[in-house]
Amino acid sequence: MAYDIQPTASHFIDGAYVEDQTGTPIPVICQVSEEQIALVHAATPAIIERALASAKRAQKDWAALTGTERGRILRRAADIIRDRNDDLSVLETNDTGKPLQETLVADATSAADALEYFGGIAGSLTGEHVQLGADFVYTRREPLGVCVGIGAWNYPTQIAAWKAAPALACGNSMVFKPSETTPLCALKVAEILHEAGAPAGIYNVVQGMGDVGHALVTDPRVAKVSLTGSVPTGRKVYAAAADGIRHVTMELGGKSPLVIFDDANLEDAVSGAILANFYSSGQVCSNGTRVFVQSGIKDAFLQRLTERLNDVKMGDPLDETVNFGPLVSQNQMEIVQGFIEKGLSEGARLVAGGERVGTKGYFLQPTVFADVTDDMTIARDEIFGPVLSVLDFDDEEDVLTRANATDFGLAAGVFTQDLTRAHRMAAAFEAGTCYINTYNLAPVEAPFGGSKLSGVGRENSKGAVDHYSEMKSVYVAMTPVEAPF
Ligand code: NDP
To answer: Residue 153 CA: which ligand 1 atom is closest?
Structure first.
């Protein structure tokens, strides 16, 4: 039987698809034809209640399994995802507009990596023993309880799995709300987890806008909130979570620097800048959009970059030869167009792109500005689209100061052949995720997350376990109890 790629209802709760058409309709729009390709409904209060109640009910029994048993289910889900990579990649492309060429290697596969990795370490999560003379303390690593995950629209499969995998490995349950712009993929993650053996209620998905997210975040049953989104939303969600002193992970926006020194390998540096700005049509949180280029290599860099842009193939993202897709929505396209206009009006030099392509579909040319200065809007604000800004520099100390002169702190990168300079820069960058001679890789084994306004906590790596569990200490007396009277 052919695998049915399209989710069959709006929500996935307690091990099954659930529909409630009284919720606000959320159309899913094709980024190429601008036509509706699916329709889901926002969660009503009754749906939210069902999702939270079932997550609460299911969590204790899930936590009572051994880590090895939980891990086996996660790893089975990873295998199913890999088996269905082609179908899931088509769904990701339909949800986001990202080229199939990308989604085949970056989305379902990344979700499978996370489930495999956290499934693998679930059985080795432990507390510790602390000897105190004859007495001792032991610590128990305990799950937090019901967690809420809220996702952005750029990586809907990956974000759903990056939150589910560590949460479930630690014995939590999760209610996940995808972005209203890309509601489909997380449903498949839930369906596959259930098929792999996850008990009903362990991972529920409900649709909706900010109000649904807010209702989840403020529910007294919820112990932790993990958000991937913009800084303004992060502020709201963090504040709402604070009321209940809930644990938080905040994966927020960025305006990351990419510094290219004269001694860099030119071809690698250009490739790095392309990965840092044009992958997923520039809709990547960690993008290195402020490209500082040292004066000796600037002309060669710009020339080679513009030559390489000739190899951009824009078109229907389902065509596997296409390597540059549309933006996710009309709204996002208009936001990015607004930034391009700002760049022009504030005096940046347009080197490539800058235009919408065609009149149907949300296609924008990959755009390069040179002679960008630190005070320009395009150098300060997160654009979240295919706009690369080249800023000039001569001196290492000066470029570090400028690179760090932002409230964001998600990522940073440096291209140089000088080993000591590379590590000096990485140490001095005020950013959570740094790259030397590459950019934008996010393997599950490495911590990922931001400093300053870009976030709190880390996803991926063993470190994520600390954000989905807490230590209980148990003091054990082996000697008579001494009291003052
Ligand atoms: P938004 O901040 O607009 O939304 C993120 C999610 O939060 C959506 O599901 C949204 O719902 C929901 N939401 C909005 N308001 C509230 C609220 N008051 N309470 C609870 N939930 C709420 O981000 P985008 O979806 O536009 O994604 C782009 C942003 O995400 C960029 O800033 C980007 O940098 C960041 N991002 C960060 C990543 C990281 O790992 N650091 C990775 C990917 C993206 P809805 O939109 O459906 O109404």
So the answer is: 25
